[in-house]
Amino acid sequence: MKKPMDEEFARRRRQLMRIMGRDAIAILPAAPMRTRNNDVHYGYRQDSDFHYLSGFPEPEAVVALIPGRPQGEYVMFVRERNAEREIWDGKRAGPEGARRQYAADDAFPITDIDEILPGLIESRTRVYHTMGVYHDFDQRIVSWVNTLRAQARSGAHPPQEFVSLDHVLHDMRLYKSRRELALMRRSGQIAAGAHVRAMKFCRPGRGEHEVMAEIVHEFGRHAADTSYYPIVGGGANSCVLHYNDNNQPLKAGDLLLIDAGCEHEYYASDITRTFPVSGRFTPEQRAVYNVVLAAQHAAFAKVKPGNHWDEPHNAAVRAITQGLVRIGLLKGPLNSLIRDGAYKRFFMHRTGHWLGIDVHDVGDYKVGDEWRIFEPGMVLTVEPGIYIPAGSKGVPKAFWNIGIRIEDDVAVTRNGCEVLTDGVPTDADAIEKLMAAA
Ligand code: GLY
Ligand code: MN
Ligand code: MN
After folding, report:
1. What are the tens digits of pLDDT across the range 222-259?
2. Using CA positions, which residue lies closest to atom 4 of ligand 1?
3. In testing the pocket of ligand 1, which one of 259, 263, 358 has its CB within 8 Å of the most ligand atoms?
4. What is the distance between the alpha carbons of residues 238 and 254, in angstroms, rounded to a whole number?
5. Whole-model pTM?
């Protein structure tokens, strides 16, 4: 039976092969299984590029795309069926399943790859491959090419060029199709639900780990996984950008910063919300919060076709600097504070990144020396923040341990952007109301 994404995978393969041209072959390996400790593995997650082109979920597999090959352009090497192993590890598609369920024109046991693949590479001028990700696999490509070189005197034609596959493929991945946008919308919705659940659950005395458990439960309930290890940081921990101990008790009067997103059918969401543990912002927390929120809105307004990648960041920098001056944490003329980067003391990261199958998704941010221009179908995060650790010189104590980030996922549309994660409020009053009702 055809699954909804089958045609999409096929379309991507056709598009890539059109770009490659007839004298080329593309070779991609599945992600290896990874050991966590001793003989225990991490949960298996397919390689993003491999998934993008095949939808095939098993390890120990290789895809070859060979445009114009009369016997079939889409060749897969996969694990053979094995009744004994399948009792332990679950069902395998096998070569037959790769043809029937995954639309391979031709499929072989992965154990036969050394005999078959050099013959497929032979007489293709260019090999498209992503070097430097899986070192063992790079070596195997070299050995297949060497097999052909050794046979050159008997008339074999080794390839003449290696081309970086990621350059082409990652540009394709930057533009999301309608179906991809639907999956990302769903991913954003599930993650937003988890943040709402965390807000309702949070109260003084509960622990960061308990809040994290609520979030992970909400993801799991919708058959989604985490798209990265969540950050759940109360009080001083809200100022630690990559905090992930998530094991401290939550205190009245503190803020809680949660950066957590899910992966739904391979598509990531990435949301940050910051809210008061007790359900009410202090005046200082609210003042800083509203500066970050204004910066996020200023950045949203710059996400539209024709604008370039750096415009939302520049808008956020301006709004944050202005706000910090108004609150009294920065002093001086606005333009020189911006020019000298005075805001970096409190806002030290950038305002976003591409989002897709990877949470920090692929795609160039610059083309040559110029920032990338937004086009419909691109998806990014917008995540300004202000962090004021305890002991910050010249900052009144009431502002210490205020770490605030507000992060949403947006898709560029024809005339602006669509926020994919608006299922959880950002407005300070709305957050207080939601928490009071819990
Ligand atoms: N959660 C990772 C990030 O916000 O970029
Ligand atoms: Mn992010
Ligand atoms: Mn994030």
Report:
1. 999 999 999 999 999 999 999 999 999 999 999 999 99
2. 270
3. 259
4. 9
5. 0.97
